[in-house]
Amino acid sequence: MNEKKKVTPAVIIEEFILFIFTIVILSPVLYMLLGAFKKRSDIVKHPFQLTKEMFILENFPKAVKNMNFWKALTYTAIITVVSLLIVIIVSSIAGFAIARAKGRLFSAFYGATVSIMVIPFISCLIPCIAQATRLNIYNTLWGCIAYEAAWNIPMAVFLYTGFMRALPGELQDAAYIDGCSTFKVYSTVFLPLLAPVTATTAIRCGVGMWNDYILAKCMLNHVKYPTLMVAIYAFFGDRVNEYGLAFAGIILASLPMIIIYIALQKYFIKGIVAGAVKG
């Protein structure tokens, strides 16, 4: 039988601090949710109130129209899905090689790959744009996809490597005894077991790709290839900020990721825990 946690002054203080932090974190979310159903004047005057007189639904159709929502959603989905496919394929193969092959070269490659995660992306932005211009992929979807995938591969390699290191080595040995090649060991033995870490990678990397603003803004023409985050930022101008439309746009843009997270959440923690065992 589990013992009840003894209530002490220290526990009360801890719970109070956690409660305060929770309020601080959730306040902007509440502000956005309420503001999406109010006029701009009501958002400014009554930020955390929503009465029957204030409640409107006009922000959502206006946001859809002004954002060119469906076109922006299409391009954002294409960039995210294709980039994720590249990340998952490349990183799972690299993770298998690093986790199962023995040699200093693989260890050095893994260390170099993981170290890239600590480099701020903003510091690489100008070189990336210069490189894309020379390769004639600037202002193209494939150029944006290539850089999105490249920047997320190190994190994915880290997750896949840690997950595969936690799998029993007897699986690989048994497959080799049965006459499987190295690629067949990966495709038939390990690949079916990668659902948890693949879901984790899809959520962690996919959310970043979906919400990306800097790369899409710098690499793509926002009229020819609009994305959701760039379209939402257009509601904030030098003189007037359309808060209601922006909040409505943020809610609409967030719905696909929320649905995907709900569908994959049972794999998310499992993949993180398994990948951290020997990562």
Question: What's the topology here?
Answer:
Blueprint: H1 9-35, H2 40-45, H3 59-66, H4 69-100, H5 104-115, H6 125-134, H7 141-166, H8 170-177, H9 182-190, H10 195-210, H11 214-219, H12 228-233, H13 243-277
How would you characterize the overall build of this protein?
This protein has 13 helices and no strands. The C terminus is likely disordered. With 279 residues, it is mostly helical. The chain is globular, with a radius of gyration of 23 Å.
Give Rg in angstroms: 23 Å
Order of helices and strands: HHHHHHHHHHHHH
Summarize the main sheet. Answer: none
In the predicted model, the low-confidence regions spanning at least 5 consecutive residues are: 275-279
Tertiary shape:
globular
- The quaternary structure here is single chain
Which class of secondary structure composition applies to the elements? Answer: mainly alpha
What is the distance, rounded to the nearest whole angstrom, between the alpha carbons of the first and last residues? 34 Å
Q: How many strand units?
A: 0
Average pLDDT metric: 86
Strand content: under 5%
Put simply, the count of helices is: 13
What is the share of helical residues? over 70%
